[in-house]
Request: fold
Amino acid sequence: MDSNATTPGGFFLQGFFEFPHLRPMLFLLLLAVHLATLSGNVLILVAVASVPSRPPMLLFLCQLSAIELCYTLVVVPRSLVDLTLPARARGSPISFLGCAVQMQMFVALGGAECFLLAAMAYDRYVAICHPLRYAAVVTPGLCARLALACCLGGLAVSVGLAAAVFHLPFCGSRLLVHFFCDITALLHLACTRSYADELPLLGACLVLLLLPSLLILSSYGAIAAALRRLRSTGGRRKAASTCASHLAVTFLHYGCATFMYVRPKASYAPRLDRTVALVYTNVTPLLYPLIYSLRNREITTAIHKVLGRLQLDRARGRGLC
Reply:
């Protein structure tokens, strides 16, 4: 072990302290995106809750919005607070436990989303390949069990990964060139340079990325085969359109996660990774509600009803005044 290895005293998040002139503009931009993300996901949750009979896909979409809501709350509020603080040479301090909890929650929510996207692909597979059995197979009870399994799966992997990462000795200044406690930044700070240190991350990637992606690919392989057998062009187009929003979200989520975590530690580029993380922790959660609200007729109808009810209540309130 390196003689300069740190004890569990904490870390420093560099954030964007080296850009003092850009920080006010970045704060306003991130605040606007964060508020829009919160509003979009809360609107979807309220819209789904207002639907009397909820199809399984709406239940999955409700859980996806809840995950995205928590996902942004784990990272963004702390980043916004740091942007308001005066510039510090060593960055913003974060305790050892606080860093571990933030990383664990971030991985747990990201992992739950990976599993949930696989469950949603299975839902589309049953709906398109076995439409007559759909109501009997994809029941509310099954949806609840799948939702619980997604959360527990993400939680189990995140706890194991956090325990493995935070057992490593950390060297030097304890300065993370990042705005939150990301896995790659922490591994880069570890004293040891053995490939064995990357095995927990590799194992987590296999469970959270490879396994769900294989399930998604097999589901869409069966869907593609079923669509080829359809003689009606209109029916084929309608069936494919029900998968478009899920595919878009899947490509965004897995694309960002693969770029960030499926690569050796030697290729870590702190400032580039920080910029990419800024996008996938702020922009992609904002895009998900937009994608589903534009492509899903049921959620669009539910959102219109909620907004119409709000406008009606506001008009009644003015009338009483």
